[in-house]
Prior knowledge:
Shape: globular
Low-confidence stretches: 1-39
Number of helices: 10
Order of helices and strands: HHEHEHEHEEEHEEEHEHEEHHE
Radius of gyration: 22 Å
Strand order of the largest sheet: 2-1-3-12-4-13
Amino acid sequence: MRNVFSTSLSTTQGRRFNRRAVLTLLAATPVILSSAARAQSRPIRVGILSGEDEDIWHIVQENARTAGLAIEAIPFSEGTPINAALAAGDLDANAFQHGPYLQAQNTALGAHIVPVGNTYFAPVGFYSKKWPSLSALPQGATIGVPADPTNEGRALKLLQSLGLLKIATVPDGMPTALDIAENPKSLTIKELDDPVLARSLPDLDAGVVITEWAYKAGIDLNKERLARESMENNPYINFIAVNENNARAPWIQPLVKAFQQPNVREKLLEAYHGAIIPSWS
C-alpha cells in the first residue's frame, strides 16, 4: 500500500517572474484555467480503495485535468486508515464510504468529515454457494455478516427485510447480533471481517457480503445471490468526503463534477459488471 505520509509536495518557492515574462506566458497559453486550478498549487490528494476504483479514478483524473484541476488518487487496501489520513490533513478528500460508516468514524476519530457529492451505491448482497434460494435455507443455518458495527447493522436489516429474523430498535441505528429479538429459523450469526467473510462463503450456509469484497473473492454476483438491498431511501450511498473546513473550497465542485460524468458512469457499470449503481442523477 502506498504510504501517503511520505508523499512530498513540489513547490515553486524562489521562482520569480517579472511582469513582462508573466504577460508573455499568459499570451502564449490558450487554455484558461478554472478558479479551482488557480487556487490550488498542488494536486488534490484523494484516498480511494485499491482495485477497480483505481481504474475509475483514472477517468476522473482525466476529466478533472481538462478543467485545469490535478488529482492524485492514493489507493489504500482497507477503509479505516483513509479517514484517519483525511482527518490528519494527509489527504484532501476521500471516496469510498457511506453515511453510517462516516458517522461512526467521525465519532471514533473525533473528526469533522462531511460528504460533498454522491458517487455510487454498492448494495450488499445475500449470497450462498450451498443453497439455491431463501426458502431452501435450513433451520439452524450459519449466516456470515460483516464484523464492523455499521455494516453488521446493515446486514441484519437486510436479513430482517427478508423475514429471516427481527431486530430490536437501537438508539444509534446500528444493531449487532446481540440485538436480535426474534430468530424463527434459529440462525447462527457469525461475525467476520469483510475479506474473510467473502472468502469463507463456501464454509457458510450463506452470508451478507459487501459488493466490492464479493467481487474480489470471485463470488458470482448473479448466480449465487439470493437477495440484495434496494437503493430507495437507502442511507448507504457512497460519496466523496472532505474535512468540514474544506467543504466550500473552490476545488470541491470541479472534483465532484469530474466524477459525475457519463464516462465514469460507463466505467463503473463495466468494471463491476453492473453490481455497482451510479448514484447521481
